[in-house]
Design a protein that fits this description.
126 residues; mainly alpha; 6 helices; 0% strand; Putative membrane protein; membrane; transmembrane helix
Length: 126
């Protein structure tokens, strides 16, 4: 299937989002360390860096037309897999100021559109 301009734009926007998020895991790891569920083994920083590497790799896979379908499918799975970190962030911020709490709670419903976006990119890549 010949990609249309809007399909390519959507895939590249998703890749850009993943890449930017991945880079922030290395540039400012502290906030990510704080939301790593403590039930995970090892140090939070290791999980922060691992998820940053995953996001950068997913960005590259989604950006390349040959790997876009698989990359987008894996991105959808990744977005679902990090949902517990967003739940932890919301729980940890329940007693904070309203703007901070709103940001933490606002992340929760955003995961579903991200999963659906990645799946749409996958469908259009096939």
């Amino acid at each position: 299937m010949e990609p249309t301009r809007s399909r390519s734009w959507s895939a590249l926007a998703l890749a850009g989002l993943l890449g930017a998020a991945g880079v922030t895991h290395f540039a400012k790891p502290g906030p990510y360390d704080a939301i790593v569920p403590r039930s995970l083994p090892g140090k939070p920083r290791s999980w922060t860096y691992a998820s940053g590497v995953a996001e950068v790799a997913l960005a590259a896979a989604v950006a390349a037309p040959r790997t876009r379908g698989l990359g987008a499918l894996l991105a959808a799975g990744f977005f679902a897999a990090v949902f517990p970190a967003n739940v932890k962030m919301a729980y940890d911020h329940r007693a904070r100021s309203s703007p901070t709490k709103a940001l933490a709670y606002g992340r929760l419903p955003l995961q579903l559109p991200l999963v659906l976006w990645a799946l749409r990119v996958r469908r259009t890549a096939l």
